[in-house]
């Protein structure tokens, strides 16, 4: 009797479980309908759940946004560093280009001069040393005996005569500049006046105005400003026709007997880089 009752209870329990599952499935099916209205309990549960989710999600979003901001700022800083490096490189390249353009221009002028004076050229050279204390006295060039350089040879730049060789070693030479205060040998020059020339001697140089003083002109002639002043070729150092400068002004000496001519040098003695060593053409 007890055994039958136990089996009966098991059957009812199984039926009850099946009914509960069925009811749960029906409720789930109804809950999954998108167009149905929520009942009050569902609305309360849903509102409470969304509020809890929003509250718990807010600090995580804040932290995430801050992390994203840090990454963005770091990326911007890295890009800025790269751009700054590129800008610095551009400035360096521009500076180098300007320097190269200046050197190319000077070399072109020097090559043009070499072509015009091809019968007198010994070689062209670069100034490698210049003493600050003797800035207007002398310079050192990178050519010497090995290149056939000798004392007393004339030295010119693309703008005109600058001096002569006074010391020579195997690979270097010293050039005495015309701007030297100790101008021992007066240089004979001629000034073009129309189709003729008047002659004089350079007596001194003024570094402040970059001008020579030419004295000894006794001819009573009008000398136009801007006239070319060149070497006469009289002597053993400078050949004829080397440009010295242009007439800037004319006065007379203390005795009012001869003219004193102020000559503006065509050479900027503060800016010398490339020069050419000349010698008289051998006959």
Question: Explain this structure to me?
Answer:
The chain has two helices and twelve strands, in the order ααββββββββββββ. It has 283 residues and is of the alpha+beta class. It has three domains: 75 residues; 78 residues, Beta Barrel (Thrombin, subunit H); 81 residues, Thrombin, subunit H. It has a six-stranded antiparallel β-barrel with strand order 1-2-5-4-3-12. It has a six-stranded antiparallel β-barrel with strand order 6-7-8-11-10-9. A hairpin with a 2-residue loop joins strand 3 and strand 4. The radius of gyration is 49 Å and the shape is rod-shaped. The N terminus is likely disordered.
In a nutshell, what does this entry contain?
The chain is of the alpha+beta class. The chain has helices at 2-31, 40-116, and strands spanning 121-129, 138-141, 154-157, 160-168, 173-177, 187-193, 196-206, 211-217, 228-231, 243-252, 259-265, 274-278. It has 3 domains: 42-116; 118-178 and 267-283, Rod shape-determining protein MreC, domain 1 (Thrombin, subunit H, Beta Barrel), CATH 2.40.10.340; 186-266, Thrombin, subunit H (Beta Barrel), CATH 2.40.10.350.
CATH homologous superfamily identity of the largest domain:
Rod shape-determining protein MreC, domain 2
Spans of 5+ residues with little confidence (pLDDT < 50)?
A: 1-6
Fraction in helix: 25-40%
CATH class of the largest domain: Mainly Beta
End-to-end Cα distance, whole Å, is: 156 Å
Labels describing this entry:
2 helices, 283 residues, 12 strands, rod-shaped, alpha+beta, disordered N terminus, six-stranded antiparallel beta barrel
């Amino acid at each position: 009797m007890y055994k039958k009752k136990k089996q009966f209870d098991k059957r009812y329990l199984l039926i009850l479980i099946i009914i509960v599952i069925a009811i749960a499935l029906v409720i789930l099916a109804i809950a999954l309908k998108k167009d149905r209205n929520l009942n009050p309990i569902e609305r309360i549960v849903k509102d409470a759940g969304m509020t809890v989710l929003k509250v718990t999600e807010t600090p995580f979003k804040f932290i995430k946004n801050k992390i994203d901001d840090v990454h963005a700022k770091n990326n911007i800083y890295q890009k800025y560093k790269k751009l700054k490096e590129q800008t610095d490189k551009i400035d360096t390249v521009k500076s180098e280009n300007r320097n190269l353009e200046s050197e190319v221009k000077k070399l072109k002028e020097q090559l043009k001069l070499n072509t015009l004076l091809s019968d007198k050229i010994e070689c062209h050279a670069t100034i490698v040393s210049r003493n600050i204390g003797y800035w207007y006295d002398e310079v050192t060039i990178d050519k010497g005996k090995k290149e056939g350089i000798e004392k007393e040879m004339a030295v010119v730049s693309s703008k005109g005569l600058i001096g002569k060789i006074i010391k020579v070693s195997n690979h270097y030479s010293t050039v005495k500049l015309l701007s030297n205060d100790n101008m021992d040998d007066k240089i004979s020059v001629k000034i073009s006046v129309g189709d003729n020339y008047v002659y004089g001697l350079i007596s001194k140089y003024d570094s402040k105005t970059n001008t020579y003083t030419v004295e000894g002109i006794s001819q009573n002639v009008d000398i136009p400003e801007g006239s070319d002043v060149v070497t006469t070729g009289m002597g053993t150092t400078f050949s004829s026709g080397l440009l010295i400068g242009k007439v800037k002004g004319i006065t007379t000496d203390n005795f009012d007997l001869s003219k004193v001519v102020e000559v503006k040098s065509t050479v900027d003695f503060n800016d010398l880089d490339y020069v050419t060593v000349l010698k008289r053409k051998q006959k």
